[in-house]
Amino acid sequence: MKKILFGLFLLLPFFAVTQNLDQEIDQTIQNIEELKTNQLQLEDQLENLRLQRIIRDLKKVGLPSTNYIEHEAMILEYAEEHEQAKWVAHIILPQIIEGTAARSNDFRVDPLVKTGTAVEEDYFLKYKQVDGSYEYDGFGYDRGHLAPSADFRWSEKALSESYFYSNMSPQRPEFNREGWAELEGALRAYIFRNPESQLYVVTGPILEAGLPVIERSINKPSIPEAFFKVALDLDKQLAIGFIIPNQEVAYPLQSYAAPVDEIEQKTGLDFFNQVEETLENQLEARVDIQAWFPEEAFGDVRPIYAPSLPRNHFNTVQAKQYIGINKDIHVCGTVVSTRYARSGNLWINLDKKFPNQIFSVYIPKEELVNFSYQPDQLLENQKVCFEGKVMDMSGTPTMKVYKEEDIELMK
Q1: pLDDT digits over 158-209, tens only?
Q2: Strands 360-363 and 396-400, sheet pairing
Q3: For 3-8, which contacts have Cβ atoms below 8 Å and span 24 or more sequence positions?
Q4: How far from 169 is each of 241, 265, 363, CA to CA, in Å?
């Protein structure tokens, strides 16, 4: 019996240690769960504080009117007669760089617009099938975001707000999904290059009397002929504006860039009107293209303004319209790069360098003897017109040139 009691006495510390370890593990797990809860609460608090700061900062730089509707992440003025916003103001924060919120697609009526907004049936009809799927009958226009959802991917709350129909405008699919989306991406790219900045952005349709409407829709939203967007980096004192037609965007985005002053003249809106007047005038009167489109700093240029060219002469953007047509035309642009391929053929890019080229010329190796000069050296950085037929070369409009007479230096 003594031996048994002595054995139990020896085991008591072991059981005590084991029990203490179990308790410590349970307590540690509980502490971790409490930390997670606290972190989620703090993250939610931080999100709300950032939303409050967005509204504060938008008002601080100035809004185009005082007749606006204030949401948590954006401010807008609704044009009831056109069933869409006259303008939408928001801020692109550096937090989009790490943002992970995905498209919510929760399109819905804006509850703050007292007169009511457009609805789904203003853009398309859908019919439920026997198998539970839907058949869609579209009216030919996208529900185009004014403040893009991707600008809010740091906040699920803000991103969801972007799907209010007050933030939608009828956009042609080729405009919304390509050129307009490219512009939205270009402004986000600015933040990726300048993560210490935030961008003040105001976007809207060009609204005027007599615009066509979506005839099959319920509320008859107007179909804008063009859209504007202005952006401001107040810290770096940079501003830029755009007006782009509601159609396929044929030219590089830089071609649509303009000082904010010009956008104000065309829209009748006064942007950033609470910025100190002298600074506001300076910001809105100029635009530094290279700050917004850094590729121009590396030699890319804007295509030549088409109306300035002679008859039967076209710029590099227009050239693609003549792909496969058995007709000689003149394509004009600035030679921004030249290179010899391994085969010995000389390649010449106009306006945009490889791999972003929009029009290329090549002179076969055996035809270079027809030139009294070295084309790669003489033509570099020159405005030149090339004569010939346009073909498709891996998606790029391309012209084959055989002799010196096919090339004309522009005055």
Answers
A1: 999 999 999 999 999 999 999 999 999 999 999 999 999 999 999 999 999 9
A2: parallel
A3: none
A4: 19, 22, 47
Residue 83 contacts by C-beta under 8 Å, 6 or more apart in sequence? 117, 118, 122, 219, 220, 221, 222
**C-alpha–C-alpha distance, residues 31 and 65, integer Å:** 51
The candidate with the shortest Cα–Cα distance to 244, out of 181, 157, 299, is 181
Mean pLDDT in the chain? Answer: 91
CA-closest candidate to residue 277, choices 89, 62, 54, 53: 62
Cβ atoms of residues 221 and 122 within 8 Å:
yes
* CB contact at 8 A, 192 and 97: yes
Query: Element (H or E) spanning 74, and its range?
Result: none
Give long-range contacts, CB 8 A cutoff, 24+ apart: 94-99: 94/191, 94/195, 94/196, 94/197, 94/198, 95/50, 95/154, 95/155, 96/150, 96/151, 96/152, 96/153, 96/154, 96/188, 96/191, 97/191, 97/192, 97/195, 98/154, 99/152, 99/153, 99/154, 99/155
Asked if the model's pLDDT at residue 295 lies above 90, the reply is no
Q: Kindly report the length of the chain.
A: 411
Is residue 313 within 8 Å of residue 330, measured between CB atoms?
yes
Residue 296 has pLDDT above 80, yes or no: no
Which one-letter DSSP state was computed for residue 101? P
Q: How far apart are CA 251 and CA 53, in angstroms?
A: 36
The torsion angles phi and psi of 311, rounded to 5 degrees, stand at -60, 140
Give the HSE-up count for residue 390: Cα atoms under 13 Å, Cβ half-sphere. 23
Q: pTM (2 decimals)?
A: 0.76
What phi, psi does 58 have (nearest 5°)?
Answer: -60, -45
At 309, is the pLDDT very low, low, confident or very high (cuts 50, 70, 90)?
very high
pLDDT band at 355 (very low <50, low <70, confident <90, very high): confident
Two tokens at 122?
Answer: 């203003």
The residue that leads in pLDDT, 295 or 224, is 224
The two structure tokens encoding residue 183: 């512009």
- What is the pLDDT confidence band of residue 5, given thresholds at 50, 70 and 90? low
